[in-house]
Amino acid sequence: MADNDRPQFASPPCFMHELDPAFRSGTEDAQTARDVGRWRKAQRQRLIAERLAIPADERTRLAGLIAGRLDEETGDPDGRTVSLYWPFRGEPDLRPWMQRVIDRGGRVALPVVVAKGEPLEFRLWSPGEELERGIWNIPVPAAGETVAPDIVISPLVGVDPERYRLGYGGGFYDRTLAAMAAKPLVIGVGYTSARLPTIYPQWHDVPMDRLALAEPVLQPPSR
Within a domain: residue 19? Predict the structure, then answer.
C-alpha cells in the first residue's frame, strides 16, 4: 500500500498513535478513555462524511452486494430470527433483504433504544406494521414481541482487522451483546472504506463474528 493510500487520521488521541494496533485496554483508565473517545469522534465524523458522499445509486448497488454476502453468511433463515436495522446516514439499505428473510420463513426484529445506558430491545416487525420515531428519529416498531435474535446484522461506521466495531458512540450494541444469555451470530455490514488499522478497543468492546463489506467504485474527480 502506498503511503498516500493509507488511512488518514484526524486528531489522534494522546500517546495512542505510538501504540501497536493490537493494543487493547483491559482496564478502565479515565485518561485513556477520554483520549480514545476524542479519536473515535474524529474518525466517526470523517467516515460518516465519506459514506454520505457515495452517490445514492452506488449505495443501492453496494447494498445488493452486501445482501448477497449475507445470504452466504447466514444460510437458510427458516425458523430463525434476524435483527436488522432501519438505514440511517448512508448505511446500506437492507430493507429488500429484510423482506427476503421473511419470504424464506425467517422472522425480522428491529433494535429499539429503551433508555440511555441500557441494552437494546429487539422487537419483531414485518413490513406494513406500525412504526414510531425512536432515538435520532429512526423508525422503530410501535409494538411487537420482544425477542432474542439468532443473528444480529450490525451496521458499522468503522471496523478494524479484529472485527471491533466503531459505531455512533452510544455503546448500545456492545452493552446488549454482553448482556445476552445466548450470544447470537453478529455480522457487521458496511463499506470497505470503513476499514481502520485499529479502533483502539477498550475493555467493554465486543468484536463481531463476521463481516459483509462492499467496495465502493471511486468516482473520477470532477474537472
Answer: no
Q: For residue 108, is it within any domain? A: no
Task: To the nearest 10°, report the CA torsion of 57, 215, 209, 71.
Answer: 50
Rg (CA), the chain: 18
Residue reference for cell 452493552: 175
DSSP track, 6-41: SPP-SSPPTTGGGS-TT----S--HHHHHHHHHHHH
Region class of 105: left (phi > 0), else alpha (psi between -120 and 50), else beta = left
Task: Tell me the backbone φ, ψ of residue 169, rounded to 5 degrees.
Answer: 100, -5
The whole-model pTM stands at 0.84
Across residues 36-42, what is the average pLDDT? 94
- The Cα 57–Cα 42 span in angstroms is 27
Give per-residue pLDDT as tens, 98-143: 999 999 999 999 999 988 888 899 999 999 999 998 887 889 999 8
Cell numbers placing 130: 406500525
Say how many domains are in the chain. Answer: 1
* Angle ∠(141,55,10) on CA atoms, nearest 5: 90
